[in-house]
Design goal:
The protein has a seven-stranded parallel β-sheet, sandwiched between helices. A seven-stranded parallel β-sheet has the order 10-11-9-12-13-8-14, sandwiched between helices. A four-stranded antiparallel β-sheet has the order 16-17-15-18. Helix content is 38%, strand content 16%. By secondary structure, it is α/β, with parallel strands linked by helices. The longest helix is centred in the C-terminal third of the chain and has 16 residues, at 374-389. Helix 5 (113-121) links the parallel strand 3 (106-107) and strand 4. It has helices at residues 14-22, 30-40, 55-66, 83-96, 113-121, 131-139, 156-161, 165-172, 190-199, 230-241, 253-265, 279-290, 301-304, 324-331, 352-362, 374-389, 400-404, 421-429, 458-464; strands spanning 45-48, 76-79, 106-107, 126-129, 150-153, 180-185, 204-207, 218-224, 246-249, 270-273, 296-299, 314-317, 341-347, 367-369, 407-411, 439-444, 449-453, 477-479. It is built from 19 helices and 18 strands. It folds into three domains: 2-206, Rossmann fold (3-Layer(aba) Sandwich), CATH 3.40.50.300; 214-389, P-loop containing nucleotide triphosphate hydrolases (Rossmann fold, 3-Layer(aba) Sandwich), CATH 3.40.50.300; 405-479, RRM (RNA recognition motif) domain (Alpha-Beta Plaits, 2-Layer Sandwich). The structure holds adenosine monophosphate. The site of adenosine monophosphate has 14 residues, from helix 3.
Length: 486
């Protein structure tokens, strides 16, 4: 018999393998090949892996398989340094666990505590969140940790840079000692190693040789500038490069605002992202960027860390980051999945010594380039304007097949009407041609509920529920506004 190469080789629940197939994930990546069997065997792992290596699925796949669906209290806790990453990890888990009906609330700051408290009262197999808010829940007794058998610390080095290590350690004191601890980090500074030594049991150390960032097809170069002409040079370079999709990194919010204003005034298709913005706005910007609704994102590192967006062809360092490792994280946004990418930096003369340190870290030289002359910029203007007129190509379609067969319905009543999952399941299972296996995740909020209908039976159920009572009453049932996305 031929050896199995795909995810089937791990003996995973069929529902997980099927979801992976629908997501277009057929072959495990290098990090997945190393991590998945270890997690399934219950071993602690310390993995050095970058965003883009498939590290989220490396833990999400085995953990979605391992959780016991019938258990209502959280069995897995995942800590991430930023809210955006928490949401991204949550989305990946919900996708992989869609057919197994995994529930995974995200717990992060600047979002209603009460709403999260309500979510935690419902079935929650896994929780994903930022350390501050998770600690809040722990201190207020709204998050039960007695059954947490798996802890994931994702982007541990970034936790360190953001000053979260102390909070992570406090959280650890709430968790059962008898657990598996998985730690992922792009770099391994001393403090992260100490964390691993102190809190992990004989962890398997994995270093992903698969795709070091320096071997990706990324062209690195820099342009000399002065403080006065930096912004002008940026605009000229962007027009000459004329990328389909680009991120520009700056170190501070005020600079992000300044660059964003300049781009906007010049007709660029753009948006910005930094920690000073309201959470709903940050969420919307990230969602739109992932879907390819605009071409240029101007961002600080904090907001954009670990974010996975397809096909970014150009990354710009408006200035070099304060930490050398951050350069690697920034350029890690491009040249993904074997595609080519370009990374450019604008430098004042005093930044040259920093550049050398980055070259040493990258083990690669960064080529100096001449700023384009006025003729080159003028010649590029028309192509740039044409591109700004064109609708950007849609991205983020990989979940489309998974969602094709699923329709999320909204029921205009919830907890206040004493509706429970069993009431919804009871009514739906009584519809001819529909069975329990066709029902996906159910969420019951105070005034409203949602239920996912699988296997292409959504419209059938929607029609039937117009006349069939749920808990003795006919309810208003419609298609939910947000399908697929959280
Ligand atoms: P990450 O490194 O976790 O940020 O993942 C990078 C991207 O690769 C995400 O969009 C994943 O959904 C995708 N991905 C992860 N594993 C696989 C796989 N085995 N096959 C195809 N895509 C994958």
């Amino acid at each position: 018999m031929a050896e199995q190469q795909g995810f089937e080789q791990y003996g995973l629940d069929d529902k997980i393998v099927q979801a992976l197939q629908l997501l277009g994930m057929t072959q495990p990546t290098a990090v997945q090949q190393q991590v998945i069997p270890q997690v399934l065997a219950g071993r602690d792992v310390t993995a050095q892996a970058q965003t883009g290596s498939g590290k989220t699925a490396a833990y999400a796949v085995p953990l979605c398989h391992l959780v016991d669906w019938d258990e209502n209290k959280p069995q897995v806790m995942i800590l991430t340094p930023t809210r955006e990453l928490a949401m991204q990890v949550q989305q990946e888990i919900l996708n992989i666990g869609k057919l197994k009906r995994i529930k995974a609330p995200a717990l992060y700051g600047k979002h209603s505590f009460r709403q999260q408290e309500q979510d935690l009262k419902q079935k929650s197999h896994m929780v994903v969140g930022t350390p501050g808010r998770i600690l809040d829940h722990l201190e207020r007794g709204t998050l039960f940790t007695g059954y947490i058998g798996y802890l994931v610390i994702d982007e541990a080095d970034e936790m360190l840079h953001m000053g979260f290590l102390e909070q992570v350690e406090q959280i650890l004191s709430y968790l059962p000692e008898d657990r598996v601890t998985l730690l992922f980090s792009a770099t391994m500074p001393k403090e992260v190693q100490r964390l691993a030594e102190q809190y992990q049991k004989n962890p398997l150390q994995i270093q992903i040789a698969g795709e070091p960032i320096s071997s990706r097809k990324i062209g690195h170069s820099y342009y000399d500038c002065t403080e006065r002409d930096r912004l002008e040079l940026l605009l000229e370079l962007l027009k000459v490069y004329n990328p389909d999709s680009c991120i520009i990194f700056a170190n501070m919010r005020v600079q992000v605002e300044e660059i964003y204003d300049a781009l906007w005034d010049d007709g660029f298709s753009c948006a910005r992202l930094h920690g000073g913005m309201e959470q709903w706005e940050r969420t919307e910007v990230m969602r739109d960027f992932k879907k390819g609704r605009f071409r240029y994102l101007v961002a600080t590192d904090v907001a954009a860390r670990g974010i996975d967006v397809e096909n970014i062809s150009l990354v710009v360092n408006y200035e070099l980051p304060p930490e050398q490792e951050t350069y690697i994280h920034r350029i890690g946004r491009t040249g993904r999945a074997g595609q080519c990418g370009t990374a450019i930096s604008l430098l004042e003369s005093w930044e040259h010594s920093e550049l050398q340190r980055i070259e040493a870290l990258l083990q690669q030289s960064i080529e100096q380039k001449e700023a384009p002359d006025a003729d080159t910029v003028a010649a590029a203007e028309q192509a740039f304007r044409d591109k700004m007129e064109q609708e950007p190509e849609a991205k983020g379609q990989k979940t489309a097949v998974l969602h094709e067969q699923i329709l999320k319905l909204q029921i205009a009543d919830g907890k206040k009407a004493k509706i429970r999952p069993v009431d919804i399941v009871g009514t739906i299972c009584a519809i001819p041609g529909v069975e329990a296996a066709d029902i996906g995740v159910i969420h019951i909020l105070d005034w409203t509920s949602t239920v996912e209908i699988l296997n292409g039976k959504g419209l059938l159920v929607l029609r039937a529920l117009q006349t069939k009572p749920i808990k003795a009453k006919i309810r208003k049932v419609t298609k939910a506004k947000f399908q697929g996305d959280i």
